[in-house]
Specification:
single chain; alpha+beta; 3-stranded antiparallel sheet; 17% strand; globular
Length: 115
């Protein structure tokens, strides 16, 4: 029996798909919680545990509430990398984080040549 592509992708990315059954107390990976007026992104593994709060702000008014977290995270990393600060580069490299801006999707939902 083949595994559902969504489950396979979620497993690869470490993202929880809470679709069926009981959810364990400690869920590892990235878990987006939808609250009124914002989002909470639980970031947890065996060795680290944190919470990222995303709320509407002056830079996120253009995006829907549904995609607020994606808009804010992409914009934040775009500006953080643009600082061109060696300390930021060093910390990102230490944790193996890299950010590359990509072309925006067309109105019809398709992306440009670069994926």
């Amino acid at each position: 029996m083949r595994e559902c592509p969504s489950k396979s992708l979620a497993k690869t990315l470490g993202i929880s798909l809470k679709l069926f059954g009981r959810v364990p107390m400690a869920e590892f990976g990235l878990n987006v919680k939808h609250d009124s007026g914002g989002k909470r992104i639980e970031v947890q593994c065996k060795h680290q545990n944190g919470l990222i709060y995303v709320v509407p702000s002056e830079a996120s008014w253009v995006c829907s509430e549904e995609l607020l977290h994606a808009h804010a995270m992409a914009g934040f990393f775009q500006q953080l990398v643009a600082l061109d600060d060696p300390r930021v580069k060093e910390i990102m490299q230490r944790w193996g984080l890299y950010f590359r801006e990509r072309p925006l999707a067309d109105e019809d939902g398709s992306e440009g040549d670069e994926a």
